Amino acid sequence: MRSGIFCAGLGACSLQAAPGAGPVQETKVNIPWDWSGVIGTGQSLAVGDHGRPLKSTNQPYGNLKLSTGKLAWPIDPNDTNLAMAPLVEPVGRLAPGYPSSWPDNIAGETPHSAMANQISALVRAASGRDFIGVHGEVGENGQCMTFLKKNATRRGLNGRSYAAALIETTAIARLAKAAGKTYGVGAIILTHGECDAGNFNYENDLYSLWLDFNTDLPAITGQQQNALMIVSQQNSCNDRSASTLAQWKAGVDHAAGIVCSGPKYQYPSPDGIHLTADGYEQLGEKYGQIYYERVVLGRPWQPLQPAAIQREGARITVQYHVPAPPLVWETAFPAPHQSVAEWQQGRGFEVSTSGGRRVAIDSVSISGDAVIIACASDPGPNARVGYAMIGERARMSAPFGGTFRWGLLRDSDPFRGASSKKVQPNYGVAFEMTAP
Q1: Per-residue buried b or exposed e for 326-351, using 16+ beta carbons within 10 Å of the residue's own CB
Q2: Which of 29, 164, 247, 258 is a Cys-bridge partner for 102, taking CB atoms 3.0 to 4.6 Å apart?
Q3: E strand map for 125-248
């Protein structure tokens, strides 16, 4: 006899063995709605700048998006011209120029189709059940958090993003009800940070945005669970970027509601800032993997990130949380910091005294879940230890073509993207910490 799939209403499903069959590993999936929403926001990388030609032009799983037709802003969520459509790229209407805003805000391939298809593929493989994602993107190219937050100050076309997210959610909730479907928003994906590279209040801004969405969305959808915020790091703008650090720290300080997906330096980039269509596809697959782990399976997934640090003279130990051991060094990337004599041997790690003087690194080595940094001299108390926080004179070299800040540390995650078919390990987050 074969195993079967057993589901309890719209809640958890599990793959179980039929009577008399051999043991089957049980995978419980939490799918509280027929349609599971994802709201995207951010700036140019959120709307797919440089992501041409489009890749995701067919929908293999039944995932959906809201079609706004030719309706102009402001859109009434009760307008009968609004309809559901298959989720393909572009996820929304193409922007006629710059600046732009919803509903005419998309520049190219976004992470959305790949993310939705990744979740659907993982759910189907685990439980045999269909997963229908409903995605929308309200990002505004080139705009800081000032224009993405609730009650944003309007400037020309910009400042609509948050209001647009609520309009979309209201319209989809209405259409779901008319179709006899339940609907809730499972996640907000934020692909952002270049504009706010010098904003030292950025972590608070992220948390405030999460709080506002999780106040306003349940009032529309009636959902009981909070939407997870998935944030990726920007690795292009500013040395010791405040937003890069905040994007990691928000997932540490507010781990129940916000998670950092990791850096973006590993994805192909045409200009050191934006991604190619392949890069957006891979980013979407990583977002999808994290959604599946955190929202569908309820596991406390975290990125490859430092957990503790200690200094013993010239020896510094950085203990890591490793999603999929063992730690390894990436061999396909060029060595970072070749223009900085002190850090040429650091594989992306950076050490300075408390006063900011660079300390030479003799070697770095992996020891289990830790990285050992051997310095040429004792950096002293409260030394600064960073990773991929200081930019290069030139971006990662061809043929890869990544960003201006990168490192070589990664885990051994065998995860392979459903669309790209590429293996995607987790790369070390960019960080800076103090070594006592």
Answers
A1: ebeebeebeebbeebebbebbbbbbb
A2: 164
A3: 132-137, 183-191, 228-232
* 5-24 pLDDT tens trace: 333 333 333 333 333 333 33
Q: Which domains does the chain have, with CATH numbers?
A: 31-296 (3.40.50.1110), 305-435 (no CATH)
Q: Which one, of 394, 259, 415, lies nearest residue 324 by Cα?
A: 415
Instruction: List, in order, residues 6 or more apart from 70 with CB less than 8 Å away.
Output: none
Q: Which residues contact 375 (CB under 8 A, 6 or more apart)?
A: 314, 315, 316, 351, 359, 360, 361, 362
CA distances 348 to 31, 401, 410, Å, are 40, 16, 12
pLDDT-based confidence at 207, cuts 50/70/90? very high
Answer yes or no: pTM beyond 0.90.
Answer: yes
Please give the Cα distance from 65 to 43 (Å, whole number): 20
Report which of 193, 192, 227, 205 is spatially closest to residue 36, judged by C-alpha positions: 227
- Residue 37 pairs in a beta bridge with 134, 185
Structure confidence by residue, pLDDT tens digits, 289-345: 999 999 999 999 999 999 999 999 999 999 999 999 999 999 999 999 999 999 999
Q: 130, 127, 131: which is closest to 25 by C-alpha?
A: 127
Name the E strands within 163-248. 183-191, 228-232
Main-chain phi, psi angles of 258, to 5 degrees: -130, 140
Report d(CA 113, CA 117) in Å as an integer: 6
What distance in Å separates the CA atoms of residue 299 and residue 297, rounded to the nearest whole number? 6
Which residue, chain included where needed, has tokens 């976004």?
110
